[in-house]
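User: I'm putting together notes for a lab meeting next week and I want to include a structural view of one of the chains we've been expressing. I don't have a solved structure, so I'd like a prediction I can at least talk through. The sequence is below, exactly as it appears in our construct file.
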Amino acid sequence: MRRLILIRHAKSDWSLALDDHARPLNKRGRRSAPLIGAWLREKGYLPDEVICSDAARTRETFDRLGIEAPVTCTRMLYLAEAEDILEVLRAAEGATVALIGHNPGIGDFAGSIVVTPPAHPRFHDYPTAATLVAEFDIDRWRDADFGIARAVDFIVPRELE
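Assistant: Thanks for the context. Below is the predicted structure for the 161-residue chain, given as structure tokens.
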């Protein structure tokens, strides 16, 4: 079995005159990311590998999760589409992998990998810092595909405030 923790970056700051890739988190995002990290620790959903978009807001989200795991930041996840995210996941090596990326790709990917979506009113719009935990009945990530994962848990930061 393989477990995936799929995290959309926390709320970013649009008030700064920076290009999209350089945007940091805003005040709400800086509050939300640690809440998601605490939830992951409380539930025992701890990754042994993290693959993160190289954008400022995704890297800051990871830093604020407070999760100890090796992290790889890659441009391949920056504004990636579902197919690109699957390609990145198939190259993963950990038994439990966290991917941190952006909408709309990450939400599309979440909806595409699970057999049955979680019964959560926010799953289909995948808001900032939304986190899906899904399990794959596979031995290697290279065997991951759409429509084969089981949704284990799903949370949004507002439920943790």
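A couple of points you could mention at the meeting. The chain is about 30% helix and 20% strand. Residues 2-159 form a domain with the Rossmann fold fold (CATH 3.40.50.1240).

User: Perfect, that's what I needed.
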